[in-house]
């Protein structure tokens, strides 16, 4: 080699060994964070809707539900994807639009209270709330219950 006569190889410093330790520490920390954040011990934000075991209605409980309450003009019971009870009739989401338009014209500024079952996804509730806004309802509320105070608690 060309560096042989000048003995450049002997003047090179050995490769640093400390970098290997930091790489292993970083890898270990990444694995630890993925394990912790992917576990069931991390609380996921959300709203539980209809979690009763006996199949009956179980409205979500929320502190301050009574403070945000407004008088509802009409109650809509959303049982499944295509089973919606409105003003004594059973409708699909597509059929419901014309009945909601008629109701909104007769009752301007109406507030719709939605009782959603556990089988109803939040996307379906959002579609219903969006449709209610388009046809003239002033507000759509998801039904909530105030948590019952346990014995000995205020």
UniProtKB/TrEMBL annotation:
Where's it found, cell-wise? Cell membrane
The primary site where this protein sits is membrane
**Which keywords does UniProt give here?**
Cell membrane, Membrane, Protein transport, Transmembrane, Transmembrane helix, Transport
> Carries keyword Metal-binding?
no
Q: How does it sit in the membrane?
A: Single-pass membrane protein; Single-pass type II membrane protein
Q: Which Gene3D superfamilies match?
A: 3.30.420.270
Keyword check for Hydrolase, yes or no: no
What are the TM regions of this chain, as residue ranges? 21-43
Query: Record's Gene Ontology CC terms?
Result: plasma membrane
Q: Which family does it belong to?
A: Belongs to the ExbD/TolR family.
Query: Sorted alphabetically, which InterPro entries does this protein's record hold?
Result: ExbD (IPR003400)
GO annotations under biological process? protein transport
Family annotation (Pfam families): ExbD
Give an example GO molecular function: transmembrane transporter activity
Q: Identify this protein by name.
A: Biopolymer transporter ExbD
Signal peptide (residue range):
none
